[in-house]
Task: inverse folding
């Protein structure tokens, strides 16, 4: 493998189509697409300071490196990307890639980042930005700290564990989402999605968990969550905190210590198709739905 060290690399396509190359202690500056079409690349302790550094590349390993804000749209159409112990400050990064792994990465401007990828693993990642991870498939995240609205819109096959998501409209239009041991704060959670499972989670959401087909909650807390489960089908919810209000679920079962208000005001919704149990009231439900 060829080595490049302690270099200030400038100009467009500075290392175009490089193969079997290790770059360390170097700066990429003032020139687009420095490593476009590259193969088998290792970058350590370096700085990317300009746009489009890694497009149409494969087998890329980056560690101890900074992507500055001007390194926007940094990694697109690239396969087998691993970034560790790095700071990624640029927006619109990592799109239409296959097999992406980020570990111990800070993403300060993660707007429109991680779009339309297949195979994403995020471990100990902190990200701030709207529309994070839109349209990606086969996503796994552990200890993800996300701040920014519209996270994971249109994703499929998502597993998230031990994370904190402060994001309005999270998990919209998704299929097959599992979240465990996490906190989710944001309005209108998971609308228009299919097969959503939440385990041991703390959730605060205005009108959250509506229009979901196949919704399972186990040992979850809904903090100040109102008008939940509207037009949800196949609900199976076991909650360990009170719910402010439940509105017009299509069918299923809901178990909670208490529910402030149970609303069935749509004549097209069959109240008898949903079993509601308020455990602090001995299983009584102050409405005409079925009571366990």
Result:
């Amino acid at each position: 493998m060829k080595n490049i060290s302690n270099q200030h690399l400038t100009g467009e396509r500075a290392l175009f189509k490089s193969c079997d190359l290790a770059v360390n202690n170097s700066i990429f500056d003032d020139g687009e697409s420095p490593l476009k079409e590259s193969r088998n690349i290792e970058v350590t302790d370096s700085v990317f300071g300009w746009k489009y550094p890694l497009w149409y590349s494969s087998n890329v390993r980056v560690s101890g490196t900074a992507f500055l804000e001007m390194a926007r749209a940094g990694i697109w159409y690239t396969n087998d990307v691993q970034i560790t112990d790095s700071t990624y400050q640029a927006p619109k990064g990592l799109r239409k890639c296959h097999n992406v792994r980020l570990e111990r990465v800070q993403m300060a401007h993660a707007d429109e980042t991680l779009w339309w990828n297949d195979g994403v693993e995020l471990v100990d990642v902190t990200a701030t930005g709207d529309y994070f991870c839109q349209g990606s498939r086969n996503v796994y995240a552990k200890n993800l700290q996300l701040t920014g609205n519209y996270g994971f819109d249109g994703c499929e096959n998502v597993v998230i564990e031990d994370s904190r998501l402060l994001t309005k409209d999270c998990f919209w239009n998704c299929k097959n989402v599992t979240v465990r041991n996490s906190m989710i704060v944001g309005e209108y959670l998971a609308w228009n999605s299919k097969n959503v499972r939440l385990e041991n989670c703390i959730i605060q959401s205005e009108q959250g968990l509506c229009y979901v087909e196949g919704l399972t909650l186990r040992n979850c807390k809904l903090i100040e969550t109102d008008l939940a489960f509207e037009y949800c089908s196949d609900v199976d919810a076991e909650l360990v905190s009170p719910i402010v209000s439940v509105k017009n679920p299509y069918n299923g079962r809901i178990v909670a210590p208490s529910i402030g208000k149970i609303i069935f005001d749509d004549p097209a919704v069959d109240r008898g198709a949903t079993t509601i149990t308020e455990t602090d009231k001995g299983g009584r439900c102050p409405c005409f739905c079925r009571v366990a």
Q: What stands out?
A: The first strand starts at residue 2 and ends at 5. The chain has a mean pLDDT of 95. The radius of gyration is 23 Å. Residues 1-80 form one domain.
